[in-house]
Write a structure and sequence with these properties.
about 25% helix; alpha+beta; Deoxyxylulose-5-phosphate synthase; 3-stranded antiparallel β-sheet; about 120 residues
Length: about 120
């Protein structure tokens, strides 16, 4: 068994409305509230790197990724994966993937997770 699977690490939680992120231990009673606005924080995963607060375009991409139910995780759920999965970082990347999803009928979450929006990826 992997060592990292036995240790509880803090997860990144984000409030898209306030454009802030925090690291918290997971709770059984749901997501913790945002200290700024009081809304529930969204779990962003182990590998989330928040954009600068002033970068509204990048936070729009974060909102689209988290709204589709995706998280910023590596290849392994325990956190020992060295390469995080692809997630769009700009609004243009999100728009391109949403257009491909609408055109081909691919689920939005799957289209947002693709490095190249037109080529399906195989999970390893």
């Amino acid at each position: 068994m992997c060592f990292y699977a036995t240790v509880h690490y803090k997860l990144h939680y984000a409030c898209v409305a306030c454009r802030v992120s925090f690291k918290r231990l997971p709770r059984d009673g749901g997501d913790p509230p945002c200290p700024n606005c009081g809304r529930a924080l969204v779990c962003a995963g182990h590998d989330f790197a928040p954009p600068p607060r002033r970068d509204t375009d990048a936070w729009g991409a974060v909102a689209a990724v988290l709204g589709a139910g995706l998280r910023y995780e590596g290849l392994e759920p325990c956190g020992c994966g060295k390469q995080p999965r692809f997630r769009p970082r700009t609004g243009a990347e999100v728009r391109a993937r949403l257009a491909v999803a609408a055109r081909t009928g691919v689920p939005v979450a799957e289209a947002l997770a693709r490095r190249d929006p037109t080529v399906p990826e195989d999970d390893e």
